[in-house]
Amino acid sequence: MITEDTAFKRRIKRRAMMNIGFHATVLIACLIGIIALVVLLFDIFNKGFSWLNWNFLTSFPSRLPQRAGIQSALAGTLWVTTITALLTFPIGVATAIFLEEYAPKSRLMSIIDVNIANLAGVPSIVYGILGLAVFVRAMALDRSILAGALTMSLLVLPVMIIASREAIRSVPSSLRVAFLAMGATKWQTIRHVVLPAALPSIFTGSILTVSRAIGETAPLILIGALAFVAYTPRSPMDGFTVLPIQIFSWVQRPQEDFTHLAAAAIIVLLAILLSMNAVSVWLRNKYEKRNRP
Amino acid sequence: MNGIEETNSLPPEANSLVNKDVAIDFASAVSAPKSLFNWRDVKERLIYYTLLGCVLISVLTTIGIIVLLLSESFSFFKEVPLRQFLTDTQWTPLSADQHFGIMPLVAGTSIILLGSSIVALPVGLASAIYLSMYADQRVRKVVKPLLEVLAGIPTVVYGYFALTFVTPILKTFIPDLSIFNALSASIVVGIMIIPMVSSLSEDALTSVPRSLKEAGFALGATHHEVATKIVLPAGLSGVIASFILAISRAIGETMIVTLAAGSTPKLTLNPLESIQTMTASIVSISIGDTPQGTIEYKTIFAVGMMLFIITLLINMIGQVITRRFREVYE
């Protein structure tokens, strides 16, 4: 009896130890991602922070690292992002409205559903190929800001649609039914009830979507965004470069100084992305507070 | 997801009301004059078609990609026989002695795929288990946004990190590592897809019904036993779907491999060497300004089509598994 009892206790103890061991393992695994993030950020700040100054932001790229800057890249990023946002936002929201509010439950619509999910999973470089053939060559837009922005719009459109659909779906149907019951048409209901309720969350989603476009590099390399642009683009038909492309071309240089320049440009890029992220989190919190009973 | 959709869409009675336009008729009978009603009807139609037009853009994008890749690849295969494309062991589209064997590029992509999976799948799954089984609310509130930040870092930044930080560190352990190598690139691609695996897997694990877990705890099981013997088997299809989607991301990844893995297509599985993936080869051809109609230009489309088909198949498998998993738990 006594031996059986100790065997039982030993087994309990072993299981408890196993649990502790497993807890430690999954905790460490979870820390790996976070440690990687911290190391990456630390490394970039370490290499690039001392190169970051006003001149760096307001100079054009140069063969001399001391004189090089990111003015044209910043301007290009601003141009491409603005046009992409202006194109994607209305089209994405309109598609989402149709799919959530109008589309009948049919086979065709479920094919369109699958199609959009698949488009979101197509590698970004394939969009670059599409942009190269359609916008740069067939439509003869050449290597312009417009060609870049159109390519980027096609790339982020599926993500924008998916985010907007989720926002529209989360509007309670009781609101819609109440408005319809008062004699409103379908569009009036959407315009005055659904969209105002969904808009904060659509904005949150679209900020995150647009920030994806800011960081994309591969499709723009494909359509031939120039690496060496020593002027500020003035119109959508001008040639351009963007921050990620500028970083790409500096990282490829063998000289140590260009690595530091790349790090400094990465700090600027991450600062833009993180502040967009912060705005979307702030919007989300504000919206959640307003809706709390 | 499905649950939300069902609870939020209109109940069937309301749908039939809308469809028969009873609401509109009612409104016009009460107040609106006949002409205004007609105008309103026209406006509703116009809006309907405008919205439908926007939906068509997504459909046209897909059709555009498929038609374009097919037609340009077709003229590529007129010059390079498909047999040669699939069996030749050399890939040298830009040198004088041109070879168009896709095998070295497939090998390069496979190394990156394997290496990044070895990093990301266990780490991502373990993070998901930690977040769904062990972590309390405060820890989750800190960790999840941090993982979101990791997911939002542009790939060119990861490429920089691989080339200027990870490779030098690896070189101190493995002296004969080349500057451009598949090992460093796969590790960093792995880090990049960790957040994807962990967040999708966590969704799958937390959607396992609470009653199953509670039953396990009531029988005296430890957290470890509940996690590995109840929650993980129950959420397995969702976890596998997250793996598959992450793998598809790794295959399509371009900037990390272009910057850190090199540009020497080689039929090898040795991760210490410089290699080239399918995506990186597209970049390297397109950087050297290729005029339309040349064989180099068409090569971009042939490789692009391979990439598109592979990722499409993988994504489809992932979606089928996700849908099945949803049916079980809603």
Explain the overall architecture.
With 293 residues, chain A is mainly alpha-helical. Chain A has two domains: 2-51; 56-291, MetI-like (MetI-like fold, Orthogonal Bundle). Chain A contains eleven helices and no strands. Chain A has helices at 2-48, 54-58, 71-102, 107-121, 124-138, 145-169, 173-181, 186-215, 218-222, 243-251, 256-291. In chain A, helix 3 runs parallel beside helix 6 (145-169). Chain A starts with a helix and ends with a helix. The model of chain B is unreliable at 1-24 (pLDDT under 50). Chain B has two domains: 11-79; 103-329, MetI-like (MetI-like fold, Orthogonal Bundle), CATH 1.10.3720.10. Chain B has 15 helices and no strands. In chain B, helix 6 (103-134) packs across helix 12 and helix 8 crosses helix 9 (182-206). With 330 residues, chain B is mostly helical. Chains A and B meet through helix 1, helix 3, helix 4, helix 5 and helix 6 of A and helix 1, helix 2, helix 3, helix 4 and helix 6 of B.
Q: Briefly, what is this?
A:
The complex is a heterodimer of chains A (293) and B (330). With 293 residues, chain A is mainly α.
Class by alpha and beta content of chain B: mainly alpha
> How would you state the average pLDDT of chain B, rounded?
85
Bin the helical content of chain B. over 70%
Task: Give the second-level CATH assignment, the architecture of the largest domain in chain A.
Answer: Orthogonal Bundle
Number of domains of chain B: 2
Quaternary assembly: heterodimer
* CATH class descriptor name of the largest domain in chain A: Mainly Alpha
Total beta strand runs of chain A: 0
What is the helix tally of chain B? 15
| Total DSSP E strands of chain B | 0
Unreliable runs of chain A:
none
Tell me the CATH superfamily of the largest domain in chain B. Answer: MetI-like
* Class based on secondary structure composition and strand pairing of chain A: mainly alpha
Q: What general outline of chain B do the C-alpha atoms trace?
A: globular
Count of alpha/pi helices of chain A: 11
Give the fraction of residues assigned to helices of chain A. Answer: over 70%
CATH superfamily of the largest domain in chain A: MetI-like
The arrangement of helices and strands of chain B along the chain is HHHHHHHHHHHHHHH
